[in-house]
Amino acid sequence: MPVSKTDFVRAVQCEKMLWLDAHRPELKIIPPEVQQRLDAGNEFGDKAMSLFGPFEETTAFKADGKLDFSAMLETTKRLLDEGYPVICEGAFSWYGNYCAVDILRKSENGYILYEVKNASAPRKEFILDLGFQRLILNKCGVKLIASMLVLRDDEEEGQVCVERLEKDGIRYKIVDATREAKILERQAGNRVFEFGKLKKKDAPAPEIPVGEQCEKPYRCWYFEHCHKIFKKGE
Ligand code: SF4
């Protein structure tokens, strides 16, 4: 079964989380403060789209309101063929595994991939996200010359970044994560098909006990479900 960028990052935290997403999503509980953080992240991402000047966004929806990924793939291909300089939410797919890239910017020698995060410092899970995108784009034949994180610039001292930008009253900083993302790209290549098996209709639930992964890097949305199950068995 195909794996998305979100699937991949969630399965790295816990494979059972991806299994539950695929087979028992009704057990998910998203706390309101987490939903607020997700909404703020989406808003931050939308605002960052214009950071490098005029852009084309590929996002498309079907009549039922669901994302039309096929249309997005088609638009992305057209924009790449036309050599469009900045593509937002460009869609890519390799053996069904897929991602949409926050910002893809053409430069003289290839493309720069940007992942936008409403955070002031890089985190391992952001790089993992970039690593998965690199895997898909490289397999699709896109020549990547760098992988960057676009973060909130809180003007903290001592943080290394390649560029600081301001747009519509928001300060951003660009952090080069190419080297780290390349390492995680290799790991993604090794695991993506293994994770896809978890989504198959008849896949058994992985037997993973609750542990540190239930709260790191994020508290799991199945926390209550899994912890109740294990309490009952005690
Ligand atoms: S609560 Fe823990 S064990 Fe259960 S799916 Fe989440 S991370 Fe995995």
Description:
The chain is globular and about 55 Å long. β4, α5 and β5 form a beta-alpha-beta unit. By secondary structure, it is of the alpha/beta class. It has a seven-stranded mixed β-sheet, with helices on both faces. It has helices spanning 5-13, 15-23, 32-48, 69-82, 124-139, 178-198, 223-233, and strands spanning 56-57, 86-94, 97-107, 110-116, 144-152, 163-167, 170-176. The model has no long low-confidence stretch (mean pLDDT 93). The protein contains seven helices and seven strands. The chain has a domain at 32-192: 3-Layer(aba) Sandwich (Restriction Endonuclease), CATH 3.40.91. α1 (5-13) packs across α5 and α5 crosses α6. Helix content is 41%, strand content 21%. The site of iron/sulfur cluster has 12 residues, from α2 and α7.
Q: Report the sheet with the most strands, covering strand number, pairing sense and barrel closure.
A: 7 strands, mixed
Write the CATH fold name of the domain at 32-192. Restriction Endonuclease
Structural class: alpha/beta
> If you average the pLDDT, what whole number results?
93
Count of DSSP helices? 7
User: What is the 3D shape?
Assistant: globular
CATH architecture of the domain at 32-192: 3-Layer(aba) Sandwich
Identify the strand order in the major beta sheet.
1-2-3-4-5-7-6
Q: What is the CA–CA distance across the termini?
A: 34 Å
Q: What ligand species are in this complex?
A: iron/sulfur cluster
Instruction: Give the fraction of residues assigned to helices.
Output: 40-55%
CATH class division of the domain at 32-192? Alpha Beta
Uncertain spans: none
Query: What is the rounded Rg?
Result: 18 Å
Number of strands: 7
Instruction: Give, in order, the helices and strands.
Output: HHHEHEEEHEEEHH
Strand content: 15-25%
